[in-house]
Every structure is written in C-alpha cells, then in structure tokens.
C-alpha cells in the first residue's frame, strides 16, 4: 500500500460567500496536555500539523458542511462559525407536514430553497461507491464502474477501501450564497454498492443533469440483495438543519432531487456479507489479534486461549506500536468488557479451578493471574509473566515437567493454561474481613402512594411476587435458592414487615423518622422463601387492602435506599433492592427534589445541568451502597417529571438497572413490566464485585465507562454486575509496544455468587501491535467504536455543551478517515471519499449517535427520557448499542410462512417503506409494527383477525393470538428479536398517515430528522468536507 502523503491543490483558493473556515478542532480522548480538564470530558486536541492525513475534493463547491449553515447565515472567513448549530428552540415555527406520498418520495419534504438542494443533489450524485485494491489503478484513471469489488472476508484477506468518486462534470447551478458564483457541481456517476462483484452495468454512462425535483435516470442498477420494492433513491434533504437550525423550519415544501441510497455503504449489506462468510461456523480464539465475526452474526465460539468476543470486544484488534501513531490516527484504543455475558447452550460454560487453600497462582510483581500468556522456563520450575516480564518461582504444589516444546505436560488439563476465560475459587484472603460471605438477599420496596393503589399497580406487583419468589436464581447444583427476601412499603413513612415462618400473621412496624432511618427488626425481616411461604403470601394479599383508603400522595426516596442498605449491613450480606416508585420525592426528607424541568435551558450551554443530579445526596448514598454490596434496581412509573437524572444515579453507580414505564396503564403496559421484572429477578448476577484490568507493558487502562464506581484509578467497584452490563475501558500508551509480544489484556472480577461463594472470573485477550497504520485500520470493529464514542460522549454531557460534543464527534470521524486517506489508500482523485473497509459504516452509525435525543433535543422528547436513554447506553454491550443506534427494520409482508428464517432486514429509511407493505422495527427499547394504507387484506386478517386496514385497533400493545400461519410466524419473529435483549420492548401499532407515525419516523435513522439532525447523505457530505479541510 502506498504510504506516502498525497497533496492536492486546494479546491477553494478563493473565498466564497457562505463558506466560513474555522481552525480544525479534534476530539482527542485524553491528550496528556489536557490532563487537568474535568473528569469525563471529551478533550479537543491540537491541530493536525504536518502529518495531516489527506482526502481530497474536486474543483468546484465543497460538499456542504456545518460551516455553511451557521445560525447567523453567511460568515466572513475571519470569524469561524459554529460547527454544529443547535436544534431549533422549542417555540420556533412548527414544521408543516406534507401529506404522505408513495414510498419513493419523503413525506416530510425538507423546507429549503431549490437551488441549494439542487447543488447538494449534484454533489451527492457525484459520489461513486467503488473499491480498489492497493495494487490497482485508482478509479480516477479508468472508466467508472469497471473496478473490482471488495469482498467481506475473514481477517487474513487484505482489505480494500470503499471509494466515493465523481463522474463527468455538469452545468453549474444558479449562483447562490451557498455555492458561490457559477461554481460547478459534481455529476451523476455510475453507482455501485461496494462489496458486490459483477460486471459494470451497460447503462452506466454519462447522463444529462436532472432538473430540480426530477428523479435520476435509469443508470442505477438495482443493489444486489436489495429487499423490498426497488426505489430509485431517497429524497435528499437540505443539510442546513445540521443538526437543526430554526432558519430552515419555515417556508413551503419544495420539489427535491433524489439520490440513490444504494450508492453509499449501508449496515444491512455489511451485516449480510459477514453472515454469509462467517455465520453458523465455529470461531476458534487460538490466534492473537484476530477479528471476530460481527455481533449480528450467529456462530459458535470455541475458547482456545483468548476470551470469547461475547466477553470482550475491542475497537481495534491491532494496537499501534507508539503513542505518536495513536495520536496520528485518533482511533480510540478501547475494550468493551461484559464479564458475565450469557453463553448459548451449545458453548462450553466456564471451568472452575480450585487450588484449595493455596489459592490462584499469581505474578509476584504485577499480581496478574496464571493464564496462557505465562511462559514456563528452567524445566518448569519458574515462569516468566507475560504482562510485566518478571520471572517467578512455580509454587511446589503447582510444579509440572515440560515437554520437548517447552510446554507443561498438563497444559490441556488446566483451564488457566489453555483457555482465555475461566474462574477460580477465591480463598479467605479475597473475602471481606477474611471470612466467607453470606448468601445475598433481595428486598422488595413498594411505593403505596394514592396513585399506585388507584391504578392497580400495587396489587399487580403483589400478585406477581407470589409466583416470582418461587423462581429465585440458585446455584446449578442446588435444589433451592439461598437468597433471603424482605419487604418494605412506603409513602411519606416506611413500613417494615416481619414475615418470620412461625408467625400466623405478618407484623408491620412503621418508621416515621425518615431523616435518620433505622431498621426496627433484624430477626424475621430477611427470611427464606420456602420456610416463610405462607406468611409471605398472606402479606402480599394484605398489602393492597391495607393501603386501599390511603390518600397520601407525597413520597420519599433516599430514605428507602438507606433503609435497604442498613438492613443488608445488619444482616452482613450483599444484596439487591427492587424499588417500585412513581413520583417526584417531594416529602420532607433527605433527597427531597423539586421540579426543575426547564425547557429554556435546552440548546444553551447550561443544558448539561438537566443531566446532573439536583443534590449530592444520591451520589454519597450510592458510594455507601457500593461499600456494603447493596445494588439498587428501580422500576419507575412516572406520569410527569420525576427527575430521572437524580433518581437514576444510585441504580447506575451500584450496578443496578433502571426501568421506566411512562403513564403506566394496566391493560396496556402490565405485560412489558412483568416481563422486565421476571427477567431481572432470574438473570445471572454477581454481587459485591471488584474488577481490575491489567495490561502488558507499554500501555495501560486510563478511563472506564459504565455503571461503575471508582475510589481509585484502578479498581472498578460494583455492588453487583449482571449478564447485560458492560464496562468500556480506554487504553493509552505509556511506552512503545512491540510487534513480537503484542498487547495483552487481563480482566479479573472478584465477586460473590448467588449461593454465597467468593470467586474470581478471569478473561484474557491478546492483541497484535503494528508500526503500519494500514494494519490498525484493517483490524477495527465499527460496532465497538460506536459503543465507545457513545459512552464517552454521554459521560461528557455532564460537563460540556452538547454542541461542542457533537463537533468533536464529527471532527474525530473526519480525522480518522482523513488519516486513512492520506497514509493507507492509493493516490486518487481529490474528490473521492475513501472509507476503510472495516469502517465503511462508521459515518452512518456516527450520524445516528449525533441525532440521538441525548445529544440533540427534540420537542416531543422529555428531559427524563433523555436522562433515561443516557443512563441505559452507559452500561450497554456492543450488540445492544448496535441495535439501539441502528434499529432493525424487517419487511413482514415478504414473510415465507414455511420458513423459520427471519425476513432479510432493509435500511432504516422511508424510501424502503411501501404502501402495500407491513414493517417491523425494533431498537431494543421499542418495537413498532408499521402498516401501509394498502396492506394486503389477507395479511391483516391473518395477523389481526379483522377484515381491513381501517378495522385495526392501533391501541393494542400485544398481538392477538389468531392461530393463522402469518400470526404465528410474526409472533415467533418478535420473540426471537426480544429474547436476546435486556429490556422488554413494548409494541406500538403504527398506521400510515396517522399521528403516531411521527414517533416511528424518528427511528428511520438514515433520513433527515423532523427537528434537525442530518440525513446520512448530508452527513457524508459534511464529513467529506471536513476531511478536505484537514488536508488543505
């Protein structure tokens, strides 16, 4: 591959009206020079300097980017404009929605001037997608459309980039303030989806430029494996609302130019290609630095010395050898670790190693645990640590002779020598106060204020707990669960219940002093479920009646958590509080909150206050909870503002989970809530946990993102950690890395099992190192990169203006791609946007992140919902964040009722919908069934048991059990999508052209947002322009 820099003539030597330039502003995550900045900040880095990576644009206007569309219109070049204008103020002119039209045209036409749309249309249509290898002629030298295609192969295959390039020139559009006098636009190319081999289409020649509003001609071959009706192209929206500018919200809709979505790389094709090459196969982890199948690909993982990607995924599987190289590329070096990930039944569960009183064998210097990276020497009497290179004596009990290859004779008999992941039984040295832990306890705490009694929620919870208590998690070999349970109800005061097995009736004790909470009873509060079953059932029957006449509406919140923690402390055991709560805690007590939901702060530098807790009570409470192994899971049932940013802090920092059901209605929402409750009680969980991530010399873990609490820089403390929680860890160089020894990571989690045994869970992973940038780009995983960017951005919202964070994300995206363009790609026409094969969907995912409501407010999204989504993403693993930012959209009308296969997904764009179609969309939190106005009557009859579209009841949240093949197939598909996800997705029925469609459209993430946020096409243009600026 050509490694030389390729310098272009600057495309814009004369200043043009409407294009302001500002100095480059990059998001460098943790440059040493910014060490003093606030914790959790995304830090801007210095300018690129002479090693600036390069991408070039053609002569003519640049693809529009945020510079041209500042909120103040035209900028003089001396005054840098804001990169990311904020979204429109809430009171700005509401957009007028055009009526819904057939699927080829967007129904919500962008509200902008025709000339600028035409100009952007020309530029976009000029981007050609193709791929070429390093040894081939770059596309600019040969006829377009005759280039070889990239294939998505397993890791050893040399990767080739995607190239977006222009064809011949077309007539200039009229002069506007956006494109300068007579600047010539780019022209329509022969468009090809990269990664698809095959001959160039015969009709891929020059076409005259389409007029504004006219669809593109016939020179667009259908994308292979294109699902659903073939659409010439989605309507292109004006990029001025990037990510939302009030100036563009008014005015009549204009006719628009279409550009084919299939001409640019999309996630669906990448996912399908990976499934085709790696799906259903065995993936063995015996090679250092190999790239695993995507999270969306089903395969069988065989541990052969490195941890399964179910436990650890990395942003890149090849680290740069030096910190200078890392700074040059700006690709974050991070691992997303999910230590308790669920393993499918066809894979081997973790082996448990027990060395008795000797405990695990560890390096004397760095304390790393025995693992496959340790090298035995001197006939097996000593070993060299793979992490710090210290030579240690082998303890006498552990000695074994070596074979002729220098490997221990018992290598394959010991999990810790031959596997990437395994567990150790911990000795008393690893226990609190050097004594074995007690089994954990669950405490159920029910808000019995007036509204919860009235809407039937309290009764529902009590009824459900009767059955749930029989399904408490237990050790695999045990017959019954060791978990003890306790019950508290509360409003302004706390009610503790004595449910000791020898009582005829439960006894209630009331604590009215909520300022200094104490536990009024020890014996009889935490009990064994089986022994006290009749007393507990008695209590659960009585609670709804006991408070039936209560008119108390005020509640407390912090004292409840305090009470639960004190109870666990008194019982000397770790545990989990299940709190069922519904309102802002306004009663006089510690942690009392006021309504501070202020829409005036949105789009200002003070917007970050909305994400910060109101009081420091909850943070110090969380700290105490972690110290005593008390995890908090909160089920919220708000009907108005409850300050999720404050209430959710304790669940977040204690490794608990937050569930939220807005405007809870028994007949619509009870199923979703009960599914979540059952799942949460039964899931695999470890208590009172401490995680330490060790690395080999040359780099170290510097930053941690997730539901974690840290008292120092190395120990990640978690009151509990379950199978759905992931911690994202960022690494930085502190020296050079060597290509020979690679980069080694060991994650050790010390925890207490559900049965009360203290254990260590160890995950080891070896990565490659290289001094070639091309190797670094070849080994990237986009899904893990987006997980990292989302968490670092969401952590930063507490300290930085959202506009700055969005800017940094765009700049870092451009910087990573520019570095590749300059250092790894063959020289080629300046106008090409070249994407590394491993990152070809980075722009579409990054645009989804930028449009998420946490980083970009929307009028219909509440402050609480934004805080809720922020908290959820912070603990997500890679598979969950992938689906959350880019939802799955399935055409249900193409169902084959005889097949058990899911229908092939389509891209999340309105251009993929059709009036005759039915589509299912899921993102891990929500599920929508969208019905076109001309949906086939036989499908409607089969799914809903009604004769036509008009008869469908859109209020239902559960599909009726019809018994037809269509119904059974659809329900099966929904359960397959649901079963791997931590949250129960509530179903919403959306009928085309009815009001709920507005909400549904926000999930079509490749299109322009209604309230700001670019379309994917516009964002590509913006990134392309940023790249060009970096290089010139």
From TrEMBL:
It is a peripheral membrane protein. It is found in: Cytoplasm, Cytosol; Cytoplasmic vesicle, COPII-coated vesicle membrane; Endoplasmic reticulum membrane. Residues 1-17 have a biased composition (Polar residues). It comes from the Eukaryota. Keywords: Cytoplasmic vesicle, Protein transport, Transport. InterPro entries: ADF-H/Gelsolin-like_dom_sf, Beta-sandwich_Sec23_24, Gelsolin-like_dom, Gelsolin-like_dom_sf, Sec23/24_helical_dom, Sec23/24_helical_dom_sf, Sec23/24_trunk_dom, SEC23_SEC24_subfamily. Residues 900-974 form the Gelsolin-like domain. Residues 148-169, 213-224 have a biased composition (Low complexity). Residues 686-769 form the Sec23/Sec24 beta-sandwich domain. Coiled coil: none annotated. Its main location: cytoplasm. Residues 782-881 form the Sec23/Sec24 helical domain. Residues 1-108, 130-259 are annotated as: Disordered. This is Protein transport protein Sec24D. The lineage of its organism: Eukaryota, Metazoa, Chordata, Craniata, Vertebrata. The gene is SEC24D.
